[in-house]
Amino acid sequence: MDALSASFAAVQVLAGDIEEAICTHAVYYSIWRRYSALPERFDWNTKLPNVKFYPLRPELVESTYLLYQATQNPFYLHVGSDILHSLEKYTKTSCGYATLHDITTKTKEDRMESFFLSETCKYLYLLFDTDNVVNRYSAQFVFTTEGHVIQLDPALRHRPWDKDTCHDCFLDNRRAIARINESFVSHSAFPAGDN
């Protein structure tokens, strides 16, 4: 299992499959509970990490945040608190936070990836700040893959598949195709023949 796959629970939430998201999240959180971090790779057969590095990735926190938003179950606040406590205890340094070189020994590297601030910290903040504008008006915002918040333009919510507009789109497309075909035929290198 790869640490990046911890984001799959978030995808399941966004797809509306909350029950499966809860199960997926539980698997990754059980690994976190065991090591107070999520290894880059975990061998489910041996039940041991085979890449023990932890670069402060956000995927489990993002899934925790979205599950809390979807369910309002206080369990996910507990999970967030546990993650925050582990980060403070094992990765905090005098000038920031450090990547764990080995999750079993908690040895640190002099390195902090930018996604720790832009995603991991942001999702933890939003998890606990329930009155934040992003949480209050979540339908108006979308997160990029790097955790940046973008406000959606209401015009983007136009659904071209609606019954009234779909027919017009279809006619516009047919007209455009007809113009392209006419242009192609009139500029064709092949002479119109009497075949």
From TrEMBL:
<keyword id="KW-0326">Glycosidase</keyword>
<dbReference type="InterPro" id="IPR044674">
    <property type="entry name" value="EDEM1/2/3"/>
</dbReference>
<dbReference type="GO" id="GO:0005975">
    <property type="term" value="P:carbohydrate metabolic process"/>
</dbReference>
<comment type="similarity">
    <text>Belongs to the glycosyl hydrolase 47 family.</text>
</comment>
<keyword id="KW-0479">Metal-binding</keyword>
<dbReference type="InterPro" id="IPR012341">
    <property type="entry name" value="6hp_glycosidase-like_sf"/>
</dbReference>
<keyword id="KW-0256">Endoplasmic reticulum</keyword>
<dbReference type="GO" id="GO:0044322">
    <property type="term" value="C:endoplasmic reticulum quality control compartment"/>
</dbReference>
<feature type="binding site">
    <location>
        <position position="145"/>
    </location>
    <ligand>
        <name>Ca(2+)</name>
    </ligand>
</feature>
<keyword id="KW-0106">Calcium</keyword>
<keyword id="KW-0325">Glycoprotein</keyword>
<dbReference type="GO" id="GO:1904380">
    <property type="term" value="P:endoplasmic reticulum mannose trimming"/>
</dbReference>
<dbReference type="InterPro" id="IPR001382">
    <property type="entry name" value="Glyco_hydro_47"/>
</dbReference>
<dbReference type="GO" id="GO:0005509">
    <property type="term" value="F:calcium ion binding"/>
</dbReference>
<dbReference type="InterPro" id="IPR036026">
    <property type="entry name" value="Seven-hairpin_glycosidases"/>
</dbReference>
<protein>
    <recommendedName>
        <fullName>alpha-1,2-Mannosidase</fullName>
        <ecNumber>3.2.1.-</ecNumber>
    </recommendedName>
</protein>
<dbReference type="Pfam" id="PF01532">
    <property type="entry name" value="Glyco_hydro_47"/>
</dbReference>
<keyword id="KW-0378">Hydrolase</keyword>
<dbReference type="GO" id="GO:0016020">
    <property type="term" value="C:membrane"/>
</dbReference>
<dbReference type="GO" id="GO:0004571">
    <property type="term" value="F:mannosyl-oligosaccharide 1,2-alpha-mannosidase activity"/>
</dbReference>
